[in-house]
Amino acid sequence: MRNRELVALCALAIIFAVFTSGCLCVKQSGHFEANGIVFDYPANWKLSLEAKPPPMVSLPLQAICQLIAVGEGQISIFWMELPADRNRIELFATAYSKLNDPDSNAREVKESEKTVQGKVFLTKEYQIPWGEPYRQYQDYWWEKDSGLFLFSLYSGLGNSQEFQASAAQVLESFSVQSGFLLPTTQAPSSFELQDVSFKYPPGWEVKTKFSGPEAHDPELDARRLCRTFTQNPYRSLEVLQKDLPEGASMETIFQATYNRFEEPGVQVRDVSEGTLSVGGQTALVKFYNRPSGEPWWRVEDVWLKVNGKILILSFTTYPEQFSQFQPEFEQVLSSLRLTPKPTETPNTPTALSTTSPSASETPSALEGPLLTVRQAFALAEPKAKAYSKEVKFVAAFSGIRQTGEAILEDGRSLAWEFWFLVPGEKLIISVQKGRVTEVKNEAYQGSFYMPMPEGWIDSPLAIKRAREEFAKNHPDA
Length: 477
Prior knowledge:
This protein has helices at about 1-20, 90-95, 160-175, 250-260, 320-335, 375-385, 460-475; strands spanning about 30-35, 35-40, 45-50, 60-70, 75-80, 105-115, 120-130, 135-145, 145-155, 175, 190-195, 195-200, 205, 215, 220-230, 235-245, 270-280, 280-290, 295-305, 310-315, 335-340, 390-400, 415-420, 425-430, 435-445. By secondary structure, it is α+β, with helices and mostly antiparallel strands. It has three domains: about 1-185, Protein Transport Mog1p, Chain A, CATH 3.40.1000; about 185-340, 3-Layer(aba) Sandwich (Protein Transport Mog1p, Chain A); about 365-475, no CATH class. Strands 13, 14, 15, 16, 17, 18, 19 and 20 form an eight-stranded antiparallel β-sheet that branches. It has a seven-stranded antiparallel β-sheet with strand order 3-4-5-9-8-7-6, sandwiched between helices. A four-stranded antiparallel β-sheet has the order 22-23-24-25, with helices on one face. β23 (about 415-420) and β24 form a beta hairpin. α1 (about 1-20) packs parallel to α3. It starts with a helix and ends with a helix. Mean pLDDT is about 75; it is low at about 1-25, about 345-365 and about 400-405.
Protein backbone atom coordinates (compact mmCIF):
# COMPACT_ATOMS: atom_id res chain seq x y z
CA MET A 1 0.00 0.00 0.00
CA ARG A 2 2.82 2.42 0.94
CA ASN A 3 4.61 1.79 -2.40
CA ARG A 4 1.47 2.48 -4.37
CA GLU A 5 0.88 5.75 -2.50
CA LEU A 6 4.50 6.72 -3.05
CA VAL A 7 4.16 6.15 -6.83
CA ALA A 8 0.99 8.24 -6.94
CA LEU A 9 2.57 11.07 -4.93
CA CYS A 10 5.64 11.07 -7.16
CA ALA A 11 3.49 11.26 -10.29
CA LEU A 12 1.50 14.16 -8.87
CA ALA A 13 4.69 15.94 -7.84
CA ILE A 14 6.08 15.57 -11.38
CA ILE A 15 2.86 16.87 -12.93
CA PHE A 16 2.78 19.84 -10.55
CA ALA A 17 6.40 20.70 -11.27
CA VAL A 18 5.90 20.47 -15.02
CA PHE A 19 2.71 22.50 -15.18
CA THR A 20 3.91 25.23 -12.80
CA SER A 21 7.58 25.77 -13.49
CA GLY A 22 7.97 24.34 -16.99
CA CYS A 23 11.55 23.48 -16.03
CA LEU A 24 11.63 20.24 -18.03
CA CYS A 25 12.19 20.91 -21.70
CA VAL A 26 11.67 18.33 -24.45
CA LYS A 27 12.49 19.11 -28.05
CA GLN A 28 9.25 19.46 -30.01
CA SER A 29 9.64 19.06 -33.76
CA GLY A 30 6.37 17.35 -34.68
CA HIS A 31 3.66 19.82 -35.77
CA PHE A 32 -0.11 19.36 -36.17
CA GLU A 33 -2.22 21.87 -38.07
CA ALA A 34 -5.68 20.97 -39.39
CA ASN A 35 -9.18 22.46 -39.34
CA GLY A 36 -7.98 25.43 -37.28
CA ILE A 37 -6.26 23.35 -34.57
CA VAL A 38 -2.51 23.81 -34.06
CA PHE A 39 -0.03 22.20 -31.64
CA ASP A 40 3.49 20.75 -31.42
CA TYR A 41 4.57 17.33 -30.20
CA PRO A 42 7.82 15.30 -29.92
CA ALA A 43 9.19 14.06 -33.23
CA ASN A 44 9.45 10.47 -31.98
CA TRP A 45 5.75 10.30 -31.06
CA LYS A 46 3.27 8.73 -33.46
CA LEU A 47 0.19 10.61 -34.65
CA SER A 48 -3.14 8.90 -35.41
CA LEU A 49 -6.37 10.55 -36.53
CA GLU A 50 -8.40 7.91 -34.68
CA ALA A 51 -8.93 7.78 -30.91
CA LYS A 52 -11.21 5.96 -28.51
CA PRO A 53 -12.72 7.99 -25.64
CA PRO A 54 -11.54 7.14 -22.11
CA PRO A 55 -13.65 4.26 -20.75
CA MET A 56 -14.90 6.18 -17.70
CA VAL A 57 -16.24 9.22 -19.60
CA SER A 58 -19.96 9.15 -20.43
CA LEU A 59 -20.26 12.04 -22.88
CA PRO A 60 -20.63 12.17 -26.70
CA LEU A 61 -17.04 12.97 -27.68
CA GLN A 62 -15.69 13.44 -31.20
CA ALA A 63 -12.09 12.40 -31.80
CA ILE A 64 -9.53 14.86 -33.16
CA CYS A 65 -6.36 12.77 -32.91
CA GLN A 66 -4.16 10.59 -30.74
CA LEU A 67 -0.46 11.00 -29.88
CA ILE A 68 1.43 7.84 -28.92
CA ALA A 69 4.73 7.74 -27.07
CA VAL A 70 5.65 4.10 -27.65
CA GLY A 71 6.26 2.26 -24.39
CA GLU A 72 5.33 5.26 -22.23
CA GLY A 73 1.82 6.53 -22.81
CA GLN A 74 -0.52 8.41 -25.09
CA ILE A 75 -2.61 11.56 -25.32
CA SER A 76 -6.05 11.40 -26.94
CA ILE A 77 -7.70 14.69 -27.90
CA PHE A 78 -11.47 15.11 -28.26
CA TRP A 79 -14.06 17.83 -28.71
CA MET A 80 -17.75 18.14 -27.86
CA GLU A 81 -20.28 20.89 -28.23
CA LEU A 82 -21.28 22.52 -24.96
CA PRO A 83 -25.09 22.34 -24.61
CA ALA A 84 -26.72 25.76 -24.28
CA ASP A 85 -28.50 24.78 -21.06
CA ARG A 86 -25.46 23.31 -19.26
CA ASN A 87 -22.06 24.68 -18.27
CA ARG A 88 -18.73 22.87 -18.10
CA ILE A 89 -18.93 22.45 -14.30
CA GLU A 90 -22.25 20.58 -14.58
CA LEU A 91 -21.00 18.40 -17.44
CA PHE A 92 -17.77 17.64 -15.60
CA ALA A 93 -19.74 16.55 -12.54
CA THR A 94 -21.83 14.03 -14.51
CA ALA A 95 -19.18 12.83 -16.99
CA TYR A 96 -17.60 10.34 -14.60
CA SER A 97 -20.65 8.56 -13.18
CA LYS A 98 -19.01 5.21 -14.03
CA LEU A 99 -16.29 5.86 -11.47
CA ASN A 100 -18.96 5.57 -8.76
CA ASP A 101 -19.74 2.01 -9.83
CA PRO A 102 -17.99 -0.45 -7.45
CA ASP A 103 -17.37 -2.75 -10.44
CA SER A 104 -15.08 -0.13 -12.00
CA ASN A 105 -12.46 -0.89 -9.29
CA ALA A 106 -11.28 2.70 -9.67
CA ARG A 107 -8.86 4.11 -7.12
CA GLU A 108 -6.85 7.28 -6.42
CA VAL A 109 -9.68 9.43 -7.82
CA LYS A 110 -8.87 13.15 -7.62
CA GLU A 111 -10.03 16.31 -9.31
CA SER A 112 -8.64 19.82 -9.39
CA GLU A 113 -8.19 22.96 -11.49
CA LYS A 114 -4.94 23.85 -13.25
CA THR A 115 -3.82 26.81 -15.34
CA VAL A 116 -1.38 26.24 -18.19
CA GLN A 117 -0.25 29.14 -20.39
CA GLY A 118 -3.43 31.03 -19.54
CA LYS A 119 -5.69 28.02 -20.20
CA VAL A 120 -7.82 26.94 -17.23
CA PHE A 121 -8.30 23.16 -17.10
CA LEU A 122 -10.65 21.09 -14.97
CA THR A 123 -8.75 17.87 -14.30
CA LYS A 124 -9.73 14.36 -13.28
CA GLU A 125 -7.14 11.78 -12.28
CA TYR A 126 -7.90 8.14 -11.58
CA GLN A 127 -6.49 4.64 -11.82
CA ILE A 128 -8.41 1.68 -13.25
CA PRO A 129 -7.29 -1.92 -13.82
CA TRP A 130 -6.15 -3.06 -17.25
CA GLY A 131 -5.89 -6.81 -16.85
CA GLU A 132 -3.49 -7.34 -13.96
CA PRO A 133 -1.77 -3.93 -13.68
CA TYR A 134 -3.49 -0.61 -13.06
CA ARG A 135 -3.29 2.26 -15.52
CA GLN A 136 -3.27 5.98 -14.84
CA TYR A 137 -5.68 8.40 -16.54
CA GLN A 138 -5.29 12.17 -16.33
CA ASP A 139 -8.09 14.04 -18.11
CA TYR A 140 -7.79 17.77 -18.81
CA TRP A 141 -10.96 19.65 -19.82
CA TRP A 142 -10.68 23.06 -21.48
CA GLU A 143 -13.61 25.26 -22.47
CA LYS A 144 -13.18 27.22 -25.70
CA ASP A 145 -16.02 29.27 -27.21
CA SER A 146 -19.04 26.94 -27.50
CA GLY A 147 -17.23 23.67 -26.95
CA LEU A 148 -15.09 21.56 -24.63
CA PHE A 149 -11.75 20.01 -25.49
CA LEU A 150 -10.64 16.90 -23.61
CA PHE A 151 -6.97 15.91 -23.40
CA SER A 152 -6.84 12.40 -21.95
CA LEU A 153 -3.39 11.20 -20.81
CA TYR A 154 -3.09 7.45 -20.42
CA SER A 155 0.00 5.67 -19.08
CA GLY A 156 1.36 3.09 -16.68
CA LEU A 157 1.76 4.01 -13.02
CA GLY A 158 5.49 4.47 -13.43
CA ASN A 159 5.29 6.91 -16.34
CA SER A 160 8.45 8.82 -16.96
CA GLN A 161 9.18 12.42 -16.11
CA GLU A 162 9.95 13.00 -19.81
CA PHE A 163 6.47 11.81 -20.86
CA GLN A 164 4.83 14.19 -18.38
CA ALA A 165 7.01 17.06 -19.60
CA SER A 166 6.17 16.32 -23.24
CA ALA A 167 2.45 16.13 -22.42
CA ALA A 168 2.65 19.49 -20.67
CA GLN A 169 4.27 21.10 -23.70
CA VAL A 170 1.56 19.70 -26.01
CA LEU A 171 -1.07 21.42 -23.88
CA GLU A 172 0.99 24.62 -23.75
CA SER A 173 1.31 24.78 -27.54
CA PHE A 174 -2.31 23.84 -28.28
CA SER A 175 -4.27 26.66 -29.89
CA VAL A 176 -7.53 27.10 -31.78
CA GLN A 177 -7.49 29.46 -34.74
CA SER A 178 -10.37 31.61 -35.98
CA GLY A 179 -11.03 29.14 -38.81
CA PHE A 180 -11.66 26.21 -36.46
CA LEU A 181 -13.98 23.74 -38.19
CA LEU A 182 -16.35 22.40 -35.56
CA PRO A 183 -16.64 18.60 -35.72
CA THR A 184 -20.43 18.97 -35.55
CA THR A 185 -20.37 20.48 -39.02
CA GLN A 186 -19.67 17.02 -40.43
CA ALA A 187 -22.52 15.86 -42.62
CA PRO A 188 -24.59 12.99 -41.23
CA SER A 189 -24.01 9.59 -42.77
CA SER A 190 -26.55 8.27 -45.26
CA PHE A 191 -27.99 4.77 -45.41
CA GLU A 192 -30.30 3.07 -47.89
CA LEU A 193 -31.63 -0.45 -47.64
CA GLN A 194 -34.57 -2.06 -49.39
CA ASP A 195 -37.64 0.14 -48.73
CA VAL A 196 -36.10 2.76 -46.43
CA SER A 197 -33.39 5.42 -46.38
CA PHE A 198 -32.31 7.72 -43.56
CA LYS A 199 -29.42 9.76 -42.20
CA TYR A 200 -27.66 8.92 -38.95
CA PRO A 201 -25.07 10.83 -36.86
CA PRO A 202 -21.53 11.02 -38.29
CA GLY A 203 -19.05 8.58 -36.79
CA TRP A 204 -21.60 5.89 -35.93
CA GLU A 205 -20.74 2.35 -36.99
CA VAL A 206 -23.18 0.45 -39.20
CA LYS A 207 -23.82 -3.27 -39.65
CA THR A 208 -26.06 -4.87 -42.27
CA LYS A 209 -24.88 -8.49 -42.41
CA PHE A 210 -26.43 -10.80 -39.81
CA SER A 211 -26.34 -14.57 -39.54
CA GLY A 212 -27.68 -17.22 -37.21
CA PRO A 213 -29.63 -16.08 -34.13
CA GLU A 214 -28.43 -12.49 -34.59
CA ALA A 215 -30.51 -12.16 -37.79
CA HIS A 216 -33.78 -12.42 -35.82
CA ASP A 217 -35.04 -10.40 -32.85
CA PRO A 218 -37.03 -12.85 -30.70
CA GLU A 219 -38.69 -10.14 -28.59
CA LEU A 220 -40.20 -8.35 -31.59
CA ASP A 221 -40.29 -11.51 -33.76
CA ALA A 222 -38.72 -9.49 -36.58
CA ARG A 223 -35.81 -9.71 -39.02
CA ARG A 224 -32.83 -7.40 -38.46
CA LEU A 225 -32.00 -5.31 -41.52
CA CYS A 226 -29.55 -2.83 -40.05
CA ARG A 227 -27.90 -1.73 -36.82
CA THR A 228 -26.06 1.56 -36.42
CA PHE A 229 -24.48 2.41 -33.07
CA THR A 230 -21.84 4.34 -31.16
CA GLN A 231 -20.06 3.98 -27.81
CA ASN A 232 -19.32 6.17 -24.79
CA PRO A 233 -22.12 6.43 -24.02
CA TYR A 234 -23.75 3.60 -25.91
CA ARG A 235 -26.78 4.22 -28.10
CA SER A 236 -28.03 2.29 -31.08
CA LEU A 237 -30.66 2.32 -33.79
CA GLU A 238 -31.92 -0.94 -35.26
CA VAL A 239 -34.10 -1.30 -38.34
CA LEU A 240 -36.23 -4.44 -38.33
CA GLN A 241 -38.88 -5.89 -40.63
CA LYS A 242 -41.95 -7.89 -39.66
CA ASP A 243 -44.55 -9.63 -41.83
CA LEU A 244 -48.05 -8.19 -41.95
CA PRO A 245 -50.46 -11.09 -42.63
CA GLU A 246 -53.16 -10.47 -45.20
CA GLY A 247 -56.29 -9.05 -43.55
CA ALA A 248 -54.45 -8.09 -40.34
CA SER A 249 -53.80 -4.53 -39.21
CA MET A 250 -50.54 -3.11 -37.91
CA GLU A 251 -52.36 -2.01 -34.75
CA THR A 252 -53.40 -5.61 -34.01
CA ILE A 253 -49.87 -6.96 -34.52
CA PHE A 254 -48.49 -4.09 -32.40
CA GLN A 255 -50.71 -4.95 -29.44
CA ALA A 256 -50.12 -8.70 -29.77
CA THR A 257 -46.33 -8.21 -29.82
CA TYR A 258 -46.22 -6.20 -26.61
CA ASN A 259 -48.80 -8.34 -24.76
CA ARG A 260 -45.79 -10.42 -23.71
CA PHE A 261 -44.97 -7.63 -21.24
CA GLU A 262 -47.84 -8.93 -19.11
CA GLU A 263 -46.50 -12.49 -19.00
CA PRO A 264 -45.00 -13.76 -15.70
CA GLY A 265 -41.26 -13.36 -15.47
CA VAL A 266 -40.95 -10.64 -18.13
CA GLN A 267 -38.93 -7.75 -16.72
CA VAL A 268 -40.00 -4.39 -18.13
CA ARG A 269 -40.94 -1.11 -16.50
CA ASP A 270 -41.93 2.47 -17.31
CA VAL A 271 -44.05 1.29 -20.27
CA SER A 272 -46.02 3.78 -22.36
CA GLU A 273 -47.19 4.16 -25.96
CA GLY A 274 -48.43 6.75 -28.42
CA THR A 275 -48.42 7.84 -32.07
CA LEU A 276 -46.07 9.93 -34.17
CA SER A 277 -46.13 11.42 -37.67
CA VAL A 278 -43.19 9.93 -39.61
CA GLY A 279 -42.59 9.89 -43.35
CA GLY A 280 -46.11 11.11 -44.11
CA GLN A 281 -47.91 8.43 -42.09
CA THR A 282 -48.98 7.86 -38.49
CA ALA A 283 -46.51 5.61 -36.68
CA LEU A 284 -47.17 3.59 -33.54
CA VAL A 285 -44.65 4.14 -30.72
CA LYS A 286 -43.78 2.04 -27.67
CA PHE A 287 -41.49 3.19 -24.82
CA TYR A 288 -40.12 0.83 -22.17
CA ASN A 289 -37.13 -0.05 -19.98
CA ARG A 290 -35.69 -3.55 -20.17
CA PRO A 291 -32.67 -5.25 -18.58
CA SER A 292 -29.69 -6.56 -20.53
CA GLY A 293 -27.47 -8.34 -18.07
CA GLU A 294 -26.54 -5.84 -15.40
CA PRO A 295 -27.60 -2.48 -16.96
CA TRP A 296 -31.12 -1.45 -17.94
CA TRP A 297 -31.88 0.09 -21.32
CA ARG A 298 -34.47 2.65 -22.36
CA VAL A 299 -36.09 1.69 -25.69
CA GLU A 300 -38.29 3.56 -28.15
CA ASP A 301 -39.84 1.40 -30.90
CA VAL A 302 -41.43 3.17 -33.87
CA TRP A 303 -43.70 1.06 -36.11
CA LEU A 304 -44.45 1.96 -39.74
CA LYS A 305 -46.16 0.20 -42.61
CA VAL A 306 -44.40 0.10 -45.99
CA ASN A 307 -45.07 -2.09 -49.02
CA GLY A 308 -47.29 -4.54 -47.14
CA LYS A 309 -44.79 -5.14 -44.33
CA ILE A 310 -44.08 -3.61 -40.93
CA LEU A 311 -40.90 -1.63 -40.45
CA ILE A 312 -39.65 -1.08 -36.87
CA LEU A 313 -37.02 1.49 -35.88
CA SER A 314 -35.77 0.74 -32.37
CA PHE A 315 -33.67 3.33 -30.50
CA THR A 316 -31.80 2.25 -27.35
CA THR A 317 -29.62 3.97 -24.75
CA TYR A 318 -29.25 4.21 -20.95
CA PRO A 319 -32.44 5.38 -19.15
CA GLU A 320 -30.73 8.30 -17.41
CA GLN A 321 -29.41 9.60 -20.75
CA PHE A 322 -32.46 8.95 -22.93
CA SER A 323 -33.75 12.53 -22.89
CA GLN A 324 -30.25 13.82 -23.73
CA PHE A 325 -29.90 11.66 -26.85
CA GLN A 326 -33.53 11.35 -27.99
CA PRO A 327 -33.01 14.37 -30.33
CA GLU A 328 -30.54 12.23 -32.31
CA PHE A 329 -33.30 9.70 -32.92
CA GLU A 330 -35.75 12.45 -33.82
CA GLN A 331 -33.28 13.71 -36.45
CA VAL A 332 -33.07 10.19 -37.91
CA LEU A 333 -36.87 10.02 -38.06
CA SER A 334 -37.12 13.41 -39.73
CA SER A 335 -34.71 12.24 -42.45
CA LEU A 336 -36.55 8.95 -43.00
CA ARG A 337 -37.72 8.27 -46.55
CA LEU A 338 -39.94 5.31 -47.42
CA THR A 339 -39.87 3.95 -50.97
CA PRO A 340 -43.17 2.42 -52.13
CA LYS A 341 -43.00 -0.38 -54.66
CA PRO A 342 -43.84 0.61 -58.24
CA THR A 343 -47.26 -0.53 -59.40
CA GLU A 344 -45.74 -2.07 -62.52
CA THR A 345 -42.68 -4.18 -62.96
CA PRO A 346 -39.94 -1.92 -64.37
CA ASN A 347 -38.82 -2.73 -67.88
CA THR A 348 -35.41 -4.29 -68.33
CA PRO A 349 -32.99 -1.59 -69.55
CA THR A 350 -32.92 -1.60 -73.35
CA ALA A 351 -29.13 -1.35 -73.40
CA LEU A 352 -28.71 -4.80 -71.90
CA SER A 353 -26.85 -7.35 -73.96
CA THR A 354 -29.04 -9.98 -75.61
CA THR A 355 -26.37 -12.68 -75.31
CA SER A 356 -27.90 -15.93 -74.14
CA PRO A 357 -26.91 -17.02 -70.62
CA SER A 358 -24.10 -19.56 -70.51
CA ALA A 359 -24.58 -22.94 -68.95
CA SER A 360 -22.27 -21.93 -66.11
CA GLU A 361 -24.70 -19.27 -64.81
CA THR A 362 -26.38 -20.09 -61.54
CA PRO A 363 -30.18 -19.75 -61.32
CA SER A 364 -29.89 -16.98 -58.68
CA ALA A 365 -27.85 -14.86 -61.08
CA LEU A 366 -30.90 -14.59 -63.37
CA GLU A 367 -33.33 -13.30 -60.71
CA GLY A 368 -33.38 -9.63 -61.72
CA PRO A 369 -31.93 -7.12 -64.20
CA LEU A 370 -28.37 -8.00 -65.18
CA LEU A 371 -26.35 -4.84 -65.71
CA THR A 372 -22.95 -3.98 -67.12
CA VAL A 373 -20.74 -1.90 -64.85
CA ARG A 374 -21.50 1.27 -66.85
CA GLN A 375 -25.26 0.68 -66.61
CA ALA A 376 -25.02 0.16 -62.85
CA PHE A 377 -22.73 3.20 -62.52
CA ALA A 378 -25.43 5.35 -64.13
CA LEU A 379 -27.64 4.48 -61.13
CA ALA A 380 -24.93 5.01 -58.49
CA GLU A 381 -23.39 8.25 -59.76
CA PRO A 382 -26.40 10.55 -59.04
CA LYS A 383 -26.45 9.31 -55.43
CA ALA A 384 -22.74 10.07 -55.08
CA LYS A 385 -23.06 13.57 -56.55
CA ALA A 386 -26.02 14.30 -54.30
CA TYR A 387 -23.84 13.37 -51.31
CA SER A 388 -20.99 15.74 -52.24
CA LYS A 389 -19.94 17.93 -55.17
CA GLU A 390 -16.32 16.93 -54.48
CA VAL A 391 -16.92 13.21 -55.00
CA LYS A 392 -14.41 11.24 -57.11
CA PHE A 393 -15.07 7.76 -58.52
CA VAL A 394 -12.14 5.40 -57.79
CA ALA A 395 -13.18 1.73 -58.02
CA ALA A 396 -15.88 -0.78 -59.01
CA PHE A 397 -16.35 -4.42 -58.02
CA SER A 398 -18.67 -7.11 -59.29
CA GLY A 399 -21.27 -8.35 -56.84
CA ILE A 400 -19.20 -11.39 -55.91
CA ARG A 401 -17.86 -9.24 -53.03
CA GLN A 402 -21.29 -9.11 -51.40
CA THR A 403 -23.63 -11.73 -52.79
CA GLY A 404 -21.50 -14.49 -54.24
CA GLU A 405 -22.87 -13.71 -57.73
CA ALA A 406 -20.12 -13.95 -60.34
CA ILE A 407 -19.78 -11.56 -63.25
CA LEU A 408 -21.11 -13.32 -66.35
CA GLU A 409 -19.17 -14.06 -69.50
CA ASP A 410 -20.83 -11.15 -71.33
CA GLY A 411 -19.76 -8.66 -68.66
CA ARG A 412 -23.07 -8.34 -66.81
CA SER A 413 -23.71 -8.95 -63.12
CA LEU A 414 -26.65 -8.97 -60.74
CA ALA A 415 -24.78 -6.74 -58.26
CA TRP A 416 -22.08 -4.06 -58.37
CA GLU A 417 -20.30 -2.06 -55.69
CA PHE A 418 -18.83 1.40 -56.40
CA TRP A 419 -16.31 3.35 -54.31
CA PHE A 420 -16.14 7.14 -54.32
CA LEU A 421 -13.83 9.41 -52.33
CA VAL A 422 -14.71 12.72 -50.72
CA PRO A 423 -12.32 14.60 -48.39
CA GLY A 424 -11.79 12.38 -45.35
CA GLU A 425 -14.35 9.75 -46.39
CA LYS A 426 -14.97 6.77 -48.65
CA LEU A 427 -18.52 6.49 -50.00
CA ILE A 428 -19.70 2.96 -50.89
CA ILE A 429 -22.78 2.52 -53.09
CA SER A 430 -24.26 -0.89 -53.89
CA VAL A 431 -26.46 -1.60 -56.91
CA GLN A 432 -28.36 -4.88 -56.90
CA LYS A 433 -31.14 -6.14 -59.15
CA GLY A 434 -31.34 -2.90 -61.08
CA ARG A 435 -31.52 -0.38 -58.23
CA VAL A 436 -29.40 1.24 -55.55
CA THR A 437 -29.81 -0.82 -52.39
CA GLU A 438 -27.21 0.62 -50.00
CA VAL A 439 -25.29 3.86 -49.48
CA LYS A 440 -22.79 4.05 -46.63
CA ASN A 441 -19.63 5.97 -45.79
CA GLU A 442 -16.40 5.20 -43.94
CA ALA A 443 -13.60 7.42 -42.65
CA TYR A 444 -10.66 7.40 -45.10
CA GLN A 445 -7.45 9.43 -44.94
CA GLY A 446 -5.27 7.46 -47.39
CA SER A 447 -4.00 8.28 -50.88
CA PHE A 448 -3.84 4.80 -52.42
CA TYR A 449 -6.82 5.16 -54.79
CA MET A 450 -6.65 7.41 -57.84
CA PRO A 451 -9.72 8.83 -59.64
CA MET A 452 -10.89 6.77 -62.61
CA PRO A 453 -10.37 8.49 -65.99
CA GLU A 454 -13.46 9.73 -67.82
CA GLY A 455 -13.12 7.18 -70.61
CA TRP A 456 -12.98 4.02 -68.49
CA ILE A 457 -14.33 1.07 -70.46
CA ASP A 458 -17.47 -0.94 -69.81
CA SER A 459 -17.29 -4.50 -68.47
CA PRO A 460 -18.19 -6.33 -71.73
CA LEU A 461 -15.31 -4.62 -73.54
CA ALA A 462 -12.99 -5.25 -70.57
CA ILE A 463 -13.75 -8.98 -70.67
CA LYS A 464 -13.38 -9.08 -74.46
CA ARG A 465 -9.95 -7.46 -74.26
CA ALA A 466 -8.92 -9.79 -71.44
CA ARG A 467 -9.89 -12.81 -73.57
CA GLU A 468 -7.93 -11.44 -76.53
CA GLU A 469 -4.87 -10.81 -74.38
CA PHE A 470 -5.10 -14.28 -72.87
CA ALA A 471 -5.43 -15.92 -76.32
CA LYS A 472 -2.41 -13.98 -77.60
CA ASN A 473 -0.24 -15.03 -74.65
CA HIS A 474 -1.56 -18.62 -74.43
CA PRO A 475 -2.19 -19.82 -78.03
CA ASP A 476 -2.35 -23.48 -76.98
CA ALA A 477 -4.97 -22.95 -74.26
